[in-house]
Amino acid sequence: ASDLLETMFRNHKSHLKSQAVDTTWIDEWHETWVSPLLFILCEGNLDQKSYVIDYYLPKLLNCSPESLSYMVKILQTSADANTGSFNSRGALGALMACLRTARAHGHLQSATDAWRNLVSSARIKQGLIHQHCQVRIDTLGLLCESNRSTEMVSTEEMEWIEFFITYNLNSQSPGVRQQICSLLKKLFCRIQESSQVLYKLEQSRSKHEPENELTTQPPSVSLQQYKNFMSSICNRLFEALFPGSSYPTRFSALTILGSIAEVFPVPEGQVQTVYQLSHDIDISRFHTLMECFTSTFEEVKILAFDLLMKLPKTVIQFQDSEKLQGLFQAALELSSSTKPYDCVTASYLLNFLIWQDALPSSLSAYLKTQQATCGAEDKSAIMVER
After folding, report:
1. Does 49 lie in the same domain as 18?
2. Residues 25 and 1: beta-carbon distance below 8 Å
């Protein structure tokens, strides 16, 4: 059906062009094919919108890429009066859906081109904190997705991503949380892939920019911006893991941190990576992750444990045997608790000690302490008998 649509688009376009004496034919073509699309995106039901976004819009843009600017102009004007609500995407939602689809199919020359010529920064921010969750997702998708895995992430995109994370970690919808985490992982992959291009440019000392990129700054500057951005993201995520933070917030923050650790692995050999999460993990943040084991939600425990497993063992080394013994003692006490989630917490603590190769020494120290305690009790008993 979608192929038939594209054939109809092209045939009608060719027919109008062959009969026209000026460029006004495009207005008739837009009235026939684009206007109904915009109406559905603004006023249609969910099934209609999904079909238009998945099938109709990509084929229309393939046939007439220049129609994107026409659609954006119409929707920008409409968005001033119809921004949407909690139950309605409105014209703003239609605008973000169009731009996201266009970028995903390669109809935007670059992100910078889109921001400068098509939509304002204020409009992007408006979409990132919209009441309707799908508008927020589409706006985030516009920033994260690209048809080129090595496309540079612009400074504007990085600023908007930080803005988004500030207000959207506490989503109550599991589906929305999953989409947010998935889209951000795509962004991190773009950063990793494009950074490899930048490293090659830097090594070859070439003054040429990657194809289709509109940046003129040296590769080293872009790499430093990437590193600063990733550090800033991690700062925000760890700040969200404060004691007592909600389950949705912890789920989102831990999942995103896990994606960062996965996408930016510890480099091996001559492979370079623009960022390493382990460099931003200090003892305070380690304790923050350990505190997540006290959550009553097992999924939070799992995410925290998996994140710790993705970090090099050398990141957190127990230099203080008393702290190590305290952790082991806490695990033993929790294991005998009558509360089920305490026993689960104990299992994660013990697994962590095993991963750190610290269980034998902890057990040995514990046995010595127990023997000393028993010896002291025996002496006390003898003294009492006398």
Report:
1. yes
2. no
Same domain flag for 23 and 104 = yes
Q: Does 165 lie in the same domain as 72? A: no
DSSP string for residues in 326-381: HHHHHHHHHHT-SSHHHHHHHHHHHHHHHHTT-HHHHHHHHHHHHHHHHHHHHHHH
Longest dimension (CA), the chain: 121
Tell me whether residue 143 is in a domain. Answer: no
| 130-179: pLDDT as tens digits | 999 999 999 999 999 999 999 999 999 999 999 999 999 999 999 999 99
93: which 2 tokens? 């939602």
The more confidently predicted of residues 101 and 24 is: 101
Q: How far apart are CA 250 and CA 139, in angstroms?
A: 23
Q: Residue 355 corresponds to which amino acid?
A: W
Q: Which two tokens stand for residue 359?
A: 């269980």
Amino acid occupying residue 328: F
**Distance from C-alpha of 8 to C-alpha of 11, rounded to nearest angstrom:** 5
* pTM of the complete model: 0.86
Distance CA 80, CA 78 (A): 5
pLDDT score of 261: 95
